[in-house]
């Protein structure tokens, strides 16, 4: 049985089990399956938030509590409809999550998880101290749901609501990650600077994922309230939040289906341990928590990426990037007239404390030329790149692109004007395929958002974006590596992938930071031929490079920097004999 057959068989068995579970399992295990479904919704949000976007949260149980208490108050206290309670819970959660997210997602390091613990504790005590919420006794008598005239008042009947909702959420999340928006989300965790440089609004995207995870938790809380028919603060403590995070991590923090595996394992394990352990200790107690913690240590030690990757290998379900099908070409920018001023850098300055990294540097890049920016290590070349692309703010001077001042704009706004770049240190998402990494470069050439992606309404645009990415990969000579993880390639080829990603943005100005570093002689020759072809197509290139032989035979003009200042500018032949350059950069004669 090949991998594809094993994968389909595993999926079929899983689908059949979920479909027939309420007919073959006892009421006890059907109830456990319902708990697994409810936990999966919250763990799924954490997969997207923590595992994919890199925003750790210990407070998702608070959003579940908001969903549960909103419908509890509306139905028990005011006699309203449970479905109105769902709308109210999602609305309140949306407002609260947006407010918290505007503050929380901007934090970094340990401040982010600490803040989620803080508001998780605050919301728990809010639940336990408000009279209208029943204080610590909670709310009892939450009505059963009615669906198409059918009262969902048993575990078996509620199963037909919980699991369709859970599966819909899982497939929607899977669709999201397999899209333009999903690639942007996956770039957030380790490559936020790169993402901004290709037009991705990282702050907005983080807030969106934070909000989506909160709404999933709120939906779970609403289902929980009407399933158990009561709401109590003890279900929404910080300990419960930690447990949900464990589910995501154990299943596979970056794997959508890992949410199901983690929720299933932890829910079943806790229930079994509650029955088994008291027999050994001859008394009741929360011994399962101790054993649970001890079991998690070797599990996380042996499977740091969770159980889902192991399951995928066993079933042949690992994801493989496929060569895109033919699709209509994306719209291209109109090229400026050759020789026109494209980029104008005027007396730009950048200080880092008392260190003047760039001091009054001025130069111009014209349409259709390759301008080399050279100088010894520490001369300030990469700092100039970061100033031009908005990664760093300038302390003085001005930078204009096609007449528009850009030194006051964020990186994502500059990218929209037609500037794309590579980085001095390779900036790829290593666990994404070469194709997906390059497709990130074409982000601004698409328009479909997260909702369209979840509903698969973005397929036509997605085919065009992937076809463009594949075309650029072929263009730079890496067609045979299209489906490979970018991190598995040698350093030199990773740099070429970065060039393909920049080309996918269809830039008017291409900034290349040491693109030939790590390349062999034949690869450098191929790169020089590629850059020459791009120049012939009226693309302007600003190039930083230390290989003088490579630079001198390629560029039209050179700007030389030393200690943050421009010391020379001219044709390659002039620079080679300039005594100031020879002394400062080439070491004198």
What does this structure look like?
- The protein has 589 residues and is of the alpha/beta class.
- The protein has 23 helices and 14 strands.
- Strands 10-11-12-7-13-14 form a six-stranded mixed sheet, with helices on both faces. Strands 6-5-8-9 form a four-stranded antiparallel sheet, with helices on one face.
- Strand 5 and strand 6 (355-366) form a beta hairpin.
- The longest helix has 27 residues, at 202-228.
- The chain is elongated and about 90 Å long.
- The N and C termini lie far apart (70 Å).
- The mean pLDDT is 89.
**How many helices in DSSP terms?**
23
What share of residues is helical? 55-70%
Mean pLDDT: 89
Assembly context of the chains:
single chain
Main sheet: strand order = 10-11-12-7-13-14
Please report which band the strand proportion falls in: under 5%, 5-15%, 15-25%, 25-35%, 35-45% or over 45%: 5-15%
The strand count comes to 14
List the SSEs and their pairings.
Layout: H1 3-24, H2 27-52, H3 60-77, H4 82-104, H5 111-129, E1 139-140, E2 145-147, E3 150-152, H6 155-177, H7 180-188, H8 192-197, H9 202-228, E4 230-231, H10 238-252, H11 258-281, H12 287-302, H13 308-315, E5 341-352, E6 355-366, E7 370-374, H14 381-388, E8 396-401, E9 404-405, H15 411-417, E10 419-421, H16 434-441, H17 450-454, H18 459-475, H19 491-504, E11 509-513, H20 521-536, E12 540-544, H21 548-552, E13 557-562, E14 565-570, H22 572-576, H23 579-584
Helix pairs in contact: 2-6, 2-9, 2-10, 2-11, 3-4, 3-5, 3-9, 4-9, 7-16, 10-11, 11-12, 16-18, 16-19, 18-19
